[in-house]
Amino acid sequence: MSVESLLDHYYERATMPMRNTKFGREQKGAFDIRHVVEDDEFRQLNHKIVLKDGVASSMWREQEWGLGENSIDVSHFEDGIVKQLSLRHTGEAVTGMKVSLTRGDWLIPDPDHRLPYIFGRADMETWYKASNYKMGLNRVRLAWDYEEKHTFPVRDHGVDKDKGEHLYKGVEYRIELDDAIRLSIDEKSSRKVNWRMEMTDDEVRSLFEYASNESWIDGWGPVADIIEHGK
Description:
Structural class: mainly beta
Helix content: 10-25%
Radius of gyration: 18 Å
Shape: globular
Number of strands: 18
Strand content: over 45%
Distance between the termini: 35 Å
């Protein structure tokens, strides 16, 4: 199922009278923006879904977890690649961050019908944790597969690798952690990822501001400027 179909089906479900949702749609130039707020009394989900000239462009999500803790996710879709930034925060204090890399054709419908989609597979997911006014790398996993429950941990509880190679379903991953996260993804074509191991407090604050206002609609560039090594 295409990304556009997944987003369409989610919005159609949101408009059903039996769902406790508020929804709306607006056109801003080339951007078709659909807004859905859903509250099931346990948690509130707030989505903004953006298509540009009929093609999936980006998605923003805010979620209340209770006890003052919230999260903001920003996803961008480009050339079949999906990049997602997730920030966990209390007020304006960011306590954790996750950056994920997957593909449009790896997205699947949410079995719980609460989200537009979930990751069926992911190339890489990285978690960062706040400490001493910095956001440092905490966990890394490759080749996540939702149905098979498969993954290749690089940094995790009891796992601490500086290098790793892993082949999964025809995709070869080679990763090295030194002053950066250096990942090569090889199949029919090759891609390289070079992400930073640590962000300063000011940089994390800039990411939070980007995700908190509608500047995210204009692209992934401000995130890449911070998280990509050497930027």
